[in-house]
Amino acid sequence: MSSSDDAKRPVGINDVAAHAGVSPGTVSNVLNRPERVAESTRERVERAIRELDYVRNSSGRSLRSGRTDSVGMLVLDVTNPFFTQVARGVEDEATEEGLAVVLLNSAEQAQRQRQSLRLLAEQRAAGAVVMPVDSDAADLLWLRKQGVPWVLLDRGDVTEDLACSVSVDNHAGGIAAGRHLINLGHEQVSFLSGPLSMEQCRTRLAGLRAAMAESGLDPDAAVRVIENEQLNAECGEKSVEEVLAGGPRRRPQAVFCANDQLALGLLKGLGGRGLTSPGDLSVVGYDDVDVAALVHPGLTTVAQPKYELGRAAMRLLLSELNDAEHRHERLRFAPELIVRGSTAAYRE
Amino acid sequence: MSSSDDAKRPVGINDVAAHAGVSPGTVSNVLNRPERVAESTRERVERAIRELDYVRNSSGRSLRSGRTDSVGMLVLDVTNPFFTQVARGVEDEATEEGLAVVLLNSAEQAQRQRQSLRLLAEQRAAGAVVMPVDSDAADLLWLRKQGVPWVLLDRGDVTEDLACSVSVDNHAGGIAAGRHLINLGHEQVSFLSGPLSMEQCRTRLAGLRAAMAESGLDPDAAVRVIENEQLNAECGEKSVEEVLAGGPRRRPQAVFCANDQLALGLLKGLGGRGLTSPGDLSVVGYDDVDVAALVHPGLTTVAQPKYELGRAAMRLLLSELNDAEHRHERLRFAPELIVRGSTAAYRE
DNA sequence: AGCATATATTGACACGTTTCAAACCCCCCT
DNA sequence: AGGGGGGTTTGAAACGTGTCAATATATGCT
């Protein structure tokens, strides 16, 4: 009624300028390089901003400047605690730099990964942290050609020197788990794997076999591989039959699982048959998700520095964005075996 | 060397138009209202798009149209499985509609929530699904005034009729847990709570007390409240002392926990003292996160339809965005008690 | 053939911001 | 008095797209 503009257009930089008796360029300077504008006018402009409740329009902003303040983070599965811990690391590091993180979820589908990468290109994201769904780098290289650099996470194998990468030494993790079981006297181990198309699974298995070999055992005879479709608890639970196949005599003495979800599922499956760990079977997981310490018995597992992984990835990305003479780097963390209650010495 | 434009400007709608021998407006039409353009020219334009590897610039796009194709989802904690399940629901529903979801994390800090909301305003997000950190609606109302509508999740109490909301009936959940324990013969129950400033905790407690009252028990005598700083496993484990305080005689017969993380922590704490559930103590959780079914014994818990919650919230948001005569709606789901191994009849 | 109607395409402008060369002001120095 | 030189401020020109009234082309009808 009283106010004349019912269709209240959002207030822009020009309105602020008018209200402060100043040119639009000056307002922009106050926003972006405050040091260049005299204190008195800066205060005047800031007051106008407050009084008009002005909020920046990032579309206009990035249209003109060609860049954005947000980085993408592409994960395989938002519900997997491993990924969310990594995401927290990425986010903390980015926030400190004033960058916003948009979390995208490929759900392990190449199709959705493709869509997400395209979205990042359309939005002219400043950069991205990516956990690719497979080792096909074509889409990733396309994204880089579009001007969006990225850092590879948990997948050192995809690119040679085309980008930075951060990963954990899966071979060493496999060896650590293997040595632990061998020291406990286990000479027959099943490897409960996810899809062997995943490099992580293959390398962890290779580590296990290497540990066997260094102890004079024949990997081919001592290690049995059980492949699953996915790396989740459901698969772990279902595969209990196959793990136990052959009767108590030929039963493996221990199981090394490709990740904790599989291990937890397996433990549940054992419980459902009246079997216990480590009494009937020693079990080792991988990742050290929070719940690994909560179940009873605690899950012996190979810990990855999840949070640090995320931080490091973001740090490399920031270096690529800010440092003129940035050189690609491959960071590799060491895993750590955490011994809990689910493994014990071989008896009988 | 051979190519003349080393500074390769990204290809825009104009380049496509030129390459297809057509006006920019037509290209725009092909992109946005393909039905309005003749098939032959459409094909020509699409070919040009492919040949030039054109990718839309969403800055220009949304600068002109004043709107975006992305919606925000603000959660309290990315690492909490309850939230990630909800996020998956939101995401699935949004993706079907061609909207991108940016996941923002307030980490339960009002400050970070404020930043996130401002970001949504600056980016002119189409809308948002929000789990507010407290019941102060000021910032939310500001966001709505800026033209970004939102749906409230898991917090029916914050707004009256100012927005849609989706939640689960916490009072009913408390009653269900209470009745279950009473039926098992437990007449002394501790409520292991998070911060009582959270409405969810208070209402679940109220439900428990109501169940007591309807059975002729005096809630004040039968229910003891143990408040924790946070809703995580660490707090749950630490509070085992307080739960057991008073020795075996006065020990509560059962514990109802405000969420599963607390319950899982408590179970671990019990195990650490050589006590078991349900042998020494019946335990009920809340949420039914995935691991609740994996631990041994399985955790009896009040399940919330997490995924559906997310989908429903997004659906309401879409209705608000698309339907001209949208009316705000308050959706309330019913929780469901899942009985597993951690509760048993009172003995002795 | 001539006209009305439907269908396709065009072209210029506006969206809100950043950028940058140019203009301005004020003070100090010669 | 005249210049020179900081530090400040200005104004206009992009950035890439969507919109819409206007124009061009095709179609159907008398």
From TrEMBL, chains A, B:
Keyword DNA-binding applies: yes
Entries under InterPro entries matching the protein: HTH_LacI (IPR000843), LacI/GalR-like_sensor (IPR046335), Lambda_DNA-bd_dom_sf (IPR010982), Peripla_BP_I (IPR028082)
Keyword Nucleus: no
Bias type Basic and acidic residues, positions: 33-42
HTH lacI-type domain span: 11-65
SUPFAM superfamilies (UniProt xref): lambda repressor-like DNA-binding domains, Periplasmic binding protein-like I
Any Pfam family: LacI
Region: Disordered, residue numbers: 1-42
UniProt feature coiled coil, ranges: none
PROSITE patterns from the UniProt entry: HTH_LACI_1, HTH_LACI_2
Keywords noted in UniProt: DNA-binding, Transcription, Transcription regulation
GO molecular function: DNA binding
Superkingdom per UniProt: Bacteria
Name of the protein in question: LacI family DNA-binding transcriptional regulator
Lineage, broadest ranks: Bacteria, Bacillati, Actinomycetota, Actinomycetes, Streptosporangiales
